[in-house]
Amino acid sequence: MDKKKMRTYLLILCASVLISVYLPMLIDSCSKRMVDGMVSETEETEAMTESGPGIAGTLPGEGRRETENDEGQDSAGDSRYEEKVSEMNPVHTDETDFAASAEEIQKRKEKQDAGLQKYRESFHPEITEAYSGVREAFIGDHAVEFDHAVADHIYQAYGNLYNVTQVELKEMLDETDDEIRCMVRVYTKSGDRNYSQGYIVIYSKAYDFYSVYAYNR
User: Fold this and answer.
1) Basic and acidic residues bias located where (predicted)?
2) Helical pair 94-121 and 143-158, crossing angle rounded to 10 deg
3) Within a domain: residue 18?
4) Cα(120)–Cα(122) distance, rounded to whole angstroms?
5) 199, 188 in Cβ contact below 8 A?
6) Residue 171's pLDDT is what?
7) Given this model, what pLDDT does residue 75 score?
8) Which residues, in sequence order, are bridge partners of residue 212?
C-alpha cells in the first residue's frame, strides 16, 4: 500500500472516531439549548398573561385602573340586576307564606260559613211525600237536620243561585240497623225558570246525620 492511500485511510478513520465521540455530545447540547429557550419563552408568556389581558399587560398603571373600573362597573350592574330581580320576585320565608295562606283560608271559610248560615235561614221549602207515611218514617222529628243537609248540599254546589221551593219524598229505598235510604226530588227556582233534580238522601241512625247525593236515572 502506498503512502497516499495510507494517509487517506488514516484520515477517514480519525474522522469516524471524532464523529462517533463528539456528535452525541453536540446533539445533547443543542437539545438542552432548545429546551431552555422554550422554557424561557413560556415563563415570559405566563408573566405577560398574569399581568393582564392584551395591552393592559404592557401598561401596568393604566391596565390596573381599567381593570378596577371594569370590575366596579360589573359589580354595580350585578347589584342593579339583583335588585330588579328581587323587586320582581320578592322573597318570602316559608313561615310567611304559610301564615298568609292560613289567613286567606280562614277568610274564605268565614265567608263561606256566613253565606251558608244566611242560606239556611232563608231555606223554607215545602216538604211533601209521594205516599203517606214516608215523611214520618224518614224524617220524623229530625226536620231541622234534614233541612240543613239539603240546604248545605245545594249551597255548596250552586251557592245562592237557586231558591228551593219544594222537597218531595219519593220513595223509601231500604233500611238497615245503621241507616235509612230515601229517594227525593228537589224543586228549585232561579229567576223565572223552574228546575228539579233527583237525590238519594241517607240518614245515619248512629250519628243522627243526613247525607245528600245527586242522582240521575
Assistant:
1) 77-86
2) 130
3) no
4) 5
5) no
6) 95
7) 54
8) 201
Number of separate helices (H) and strands (E) present in the chain: 5, 5
Per residue in 85-120, pLDDT (tens digit) is: 555 555 555 666 777 788 889 888 888 888 889 999
Q: Same domain for 191 and 137?
A: yes
Of 160, 141, 139, 142, give the one whose Cα is nearest residue 151.
160
Question: pTM to 2 decimals?
Answer: 0.53
Cell numbers 408573566: residue:
47
143, amino acid identity: A
Alpha helix segments (H runs only) across the chain: 3-51, 60-88, 94-121, 134-138, 143-158
Exposed / middle / buried, residue 184 (Cβ in 10 Å: 0-12, 13-18, 19+): buried
CA dihedral over 45, 48, 50, 53, signed as positive or negative: negative
Cα–Cα distance, 137 to 182 (Å, whole number): 10
In a domain, residue 185? The reply is yes
Phi and psi dihedrals of 162, rounded to 5? -115, 145
Q: Which helix (H) or strand (E) element contains residue 38?
A: helix 3-51
Look up cell 438542552; give the residue: 32
Same structural domain for residues 86 and 134?
no
Structural domain harbouring 48: 35-98
Residue ranges of the chain with per-residue pLDDT less than 50: 47, 49-69, 71-73
User: Is 53 within a domain?
Assistant: yes
In a domain, 139, yes or no: yes
